[in-house]
Automatic annotation (TrEMBL):
UniProt domain Amino acid transporter transmembrane: residue ranges: 13-219
Protein keywords: Membrane, Transmembrane, Transmembrane helix
Phylogenetic classification of the source organism: Eukaryota, Metazoa, Ecdysozoa, Arthropoda, Hexapoda
Protein's cellular compartments: Membrane
Chief place of localization: membrane
Record has DNA-binding as a keyword: no
Identification of the protein by name: Proton-coupled amino acid transporter 4
A GO MF label: L-amino acid transmembrane transporter activity
Organism: Cacopsylla melanoneura
Length: 224
């Protein structure tokens, strides 16, 4: 292990807040989840205890945890925001790793960007396009503009890791925890299927989502 590895950091809550925001950004893909479930042949299998969603989340969590643990054990507090920055630059292996990362992003980016582009196109852009022959042009321009914008942000923002943590801590607990719990509570109450267990679960999720959003966002903002 690296000599800088410490089991109990000096500011544990600050580290946890940054970790929480990054973790939420990594595992939360609300648009992909909904789109995938709606396009499955048997959507009921998606949310079973051993369904697609739970198996996928467990696998991703273990993979992220293993990668982070191994990276920290190797480089300690010198670990960069991206582990690829710690790899030696005078070897062919880091180059191959970065090329692999580039291909991973290339093939997964359209999936992650499917819902934002679909929402923007259907609700804001397509209604202003009168000629059907020009729709593919405007659709392509929209996709290209959004991709270029995100790439420029990655290049120009010097503290991208803190930005990701802040966005993850602020937006994703609300979108992924608080709002779904509120909607479930409302739907079950309207359908008169609200039980004590569902009520307690939803209230606990709402409190946790709001509490984590406020505290972790506060810490992330003051870490910039």
């Amino acid at each position: 292990p690296h000599p800088d590895v410490v089991l109990i950091p000096e500011h544990p809550f600050k580290g946890f807040a940054l970790f929480f925001g990054t973790m939420m950004s990594a595992v939360q893909s609300i648009g992909v989840i909904v789109a995938l479930e709606n396009n499955m042949k048997t959507p009921a299998y998606y949310r079973k205890p051993c369904g697609v969603f739970n198996i996928g989340i467990v696998f991703i969590t273990c993979l992220y945890g293993f990668t982070g643990l191994v990276g920290y054990c190797k480089y300690g507090n010198a670990t960069q925001a991206s582990i690829t920055l710690n790899l030696p630059q005078d070897s062919i292996v880091p180059v191959l790793v970065k090329i692999t990362f580039a291909f991973i992003i290339l093939f997964t980016y359209p999936l992650q960007f499917f819902m934002p582009i679909d929402i923007l196109w259907r609700n804001y852009v397509r209604i202003h396009v009168t000629k059907s022959s020009n729709k593919w042009v405007y659709s392509s321009l929209l996709r290209a503009a959004l991709v270029i914008l995100t790439v420029l942000m990655a290049f120009l923002i010097p503290i991208l890791d803190l930005l990701i943590s802040t966005v993850g801590a602020f937006a994703l607990p609300t979108v992924g925890i608080t709002f779904p719990a509120i909607m479930e509570l409302s739907v079950f109450h309207k359908e008169k299927r609200l039980t004590s267990w569902i009520f307690i679960k939803c209230i606990a999720l709402i409190i946790f989502g709001i509490f984590s959003m406020i505290l972790c966002t506060y810490v992330c903002l003051f870490s910039m």
